[in-house]
Design brief:
- The strands form 3 sheets. This protein has a 6-stranded antiparallel β-barrel. Strands 5-4-2-7 form a 4-stranded antiparallel β-sheet.
- It has a domain of about 60 residues: Helix Hairpins, CATH 1.10.287.
- By secondary structure, the chain is an alpha+beta fold.
- It contains 4 helices and 14 strands.
Length: about 270
């Protein structure tokens, strides 16, 4: 009995030691996996803080937050009442000058006007038409149009509020029919990707995998982190994916394998 006890107590430290060693290896593997985890976030393809090039007062705000807008769609206007009046005057003057030129051309055919008078009339008409175009351009500058197909996420000014040179921000529009993901990879993994290549990304919050295209691989390794920025683009025309979700590579890319070709380097 004593012999059995001695034998049992003699083996227990061996089993416990093996268990501790395996547990240590498992913890080390988990710690390594977490350290190597690559995490990024989906972002709008473009985030545009729309500003006015001119100072003035908001006359019309034609959209609300959350509104879907099309490229070149008018979303807001500054007060242009004075410019519209000037445009009416310039239009009338250009029309009058065109009529005068026509009469001089008729008189010229009967030798009743001089070439100098015709040249002067043509020049005056050119000037009036240029003045008209200038005013139209000034009105257009005070008209805010969406530069992309997107969604209005923030409105900073209401009608009757002023837009100044110090604070010209009127609204924010984001383009989300495509999403971008920036992942910071070790150089050995970043070299596996080439611009234009296709891969899969895992959307962690949605628990889904989606195809993506490599748009850019930075030629510079960040000295502080020792990583390389790789930019991916996800097509999102149907709006299935939300911006701001966590994202990572769907599967690890073997080192020494070119993701753009899918063949191992030799």
């Amino acid at each position: 009995m004593n012999g059995n006890q001695k034998s049992y107590t003699g083996r227990a430290p061996v089993k416990f030691g093996m268990f501790s060693a395996r547990l240590g290896v498992l913890l080390l593997l988990l710690a390594t996996a977490r350290a190597e985890e690559i995490l990024g976030y989906t972002e709008p393809f473009k985030t545009i803080n729309m500003s006015s090039a001119e100072q003035g007062v908001i006359a019309e705000m034609l959209v609300e937050e959350g509104a879907a807008v099309k490229k070149t769609q008018v979303v807001a206007r500054l007060d242009t009442a004075t410019l519209l009046a000037e445009l009416d005057i310039a239009t009338a003057e250009a029309k009058l000058q065109a009529t005068r030129l026509k009469r001089l051309e008729e008189l010229s055919s009967a030798n009743r006007s001089t070439p100098e008078e015709l040249d002067r009339a043509r020049t005056d008409l050119t000037i009036k038409e240029a003045q008209k175009r200038k005013i139209e351009a000034q009105i257009e500058v005070r008209t805010l149009r969406s530069p992309v197909d997107g969604v209005v996420t923030e409105i900073k000014r209401d009608p009757s509020e002023a837009v100044s040179a110090a604070n010209p921000h009127v609204m924010t529009v984001v383009q989300v029919d495509k999403l971008i993901v920036n992942l910071f990879l070790p150089p050995s993994r970043a070299t596996c990707f080439k611009a234009g290549a296709s891969t899969n990304l895992q959307l962690l919050d949605e628990k889904a995998t989606t195809p993506a295209t490599v748009e850019f691989v930075s030629p510079v390794t960040d000295s502080a982190s020792g990583t390389v920025r790789v930019k991916f683009v996800i097509q999102n025309a149907d709006g299935a994916h939300r911006s701001g979700g966590r994202c990572t590579l769907a599967e690890s890319v073997d080192e020494g394998k070119d993701a753009s070709r899918g063949t191992a380097k030799r």
